[in-house]
Amino acid sequence: MKIAVIGSNGQLGSDIYEVLNESYSGKVMGLTHNDIDISNLDSVNSVLKEIKPNIIINTAAFHNVPLCEKEREKAFAVNSRGAENLAKISNELRAILFHFSTDYVFDGKKKRPYIETDKPNPLNIYAKSKLEGENKIREIAEKYYILRVAGLYGKYPSRVKGYNFVGLMLKLAKERDEIRVVDNERTTPTYTKEIAEQLSLMIKKEPAFGIYHATAEGECSWYEFAKAIFEISGVKTNLVKAAPGEFATEVKRPKYSVLENFNLKREGINIFSYWKDELRDYIKSLNL
Ligand SMILES: NC(=O)c1ccc[n+]([C@@H]2O[C@H](COP(=O)([O-])OP(=O)(O)OC[C@H]3O[C@@H](n4cnc5c(N)ncnc54)[C@H](OP(=O)(O)O)[C@@H]3O)[C@@H](O)[C@H]2O)c1
Predict the structure, then answer these.
(1) Which pLDDT score is estimated for 50?
(2) Is 160 close to ligand 1, i.e. is its CB under 6 Å away?
(3) Domains plus CATH for the chain?
(4) Is the pTM value of this prediction over 0.70?
(5) Which candidate, 84, 260, 256, 231, places its Cα nearest to that of 170?
(6) Whole-number Å distance between alpha carbons of 120 and 106
(7) Does ligand 1 have an atom closer than 6 angstroms to the CB of 80?
(8) Which pLDDT belongs to residue 145?
(9) CA distance 68 to 143
(10) Which atom, in ligand 1's list, is nearest to the CA of 126?
(11) Which residue, among 62, 63, 65, has the nearest Cα to 249 in the 3D structure?
(12) Backbone angles phi, psi at 49, to 5 degrees
């Protein structure tokens, strides 16, 4: 068994690489952007035909949401064509493709947790390009899992932002007298290590191919997430709910993008805990 992890120095890819190495030591190949460009079919073919993995895990994406609006072509090249290229090579190698997508494929109008059969309606270019990537995989790949995740944080920072929300809040608490956070967008913060553990279990259990929502249990607003960060870490700060529209940007985002892990539960393999319990584990690991 050989496993290729694409984006292995990213926020999610790093944890996946580490967790899989515990079970499949020596058989997991980590690939960074320097090793492979998923938007380029020649690069995908030459790198993956050399490794011949049985499992390809793609965490690579262009997910800077405001920048995707400006660099539309790049967004579709990485998030859609990249997914298409990986679907093609997976078939050639008879490999299983694990691909990551986003809660942002939904428009947020449902106001109750979205399940995998709910109809997506992406609001911005990032989300549109990710949905197109999902659809390419569904059309082309013979053996695939698409895992929709949300609100990631973990040991390694996001390559795009250089931090995660937890780290940002703890940093701001040291720098500012007051921290203002929006209370009108609801999601489910999810610890990347839990996603890596879930993926590892999926490799072992081989559930039905298809789309899986893969987030922590429960939901919160970004303000409630920040409040929990300060409560759990014992950091005293003046946290204030931002007024609606205070951080308004041109880019549309869903106000409600909570996902229900319906398919993982149907398969009897959902390992996710309540979001605050995952957050407690993560903050404990920081040894503040
Ligand atoms: N972060 C979130 O909260 C969130 C929420 C929902 C869904 N997601 C999805 O979760 C996945 C993982 O996100 P993440 O936060 O772990 O991202 P990340 O930290 O930015 O990591 C992405 C990785 O992909 C690499 N990459 C970018 N373009 C590439 C290309 N064309 N070819 C090969 N590698 C490329 C990056 O390398 P360089 O940095 O060197 O370019 C980086 O190693 C993505 O699919 C994202 O859409 C994330």
Answers:
(1) 98
(2) yes
(3) 3-154+190-217+258-273 (3.40.50.720)
(4) yes
(5) 231
(6) 5
(7) no
(8) 98
(9) 29
(10) 47
(11) 65
(12) -70, -30
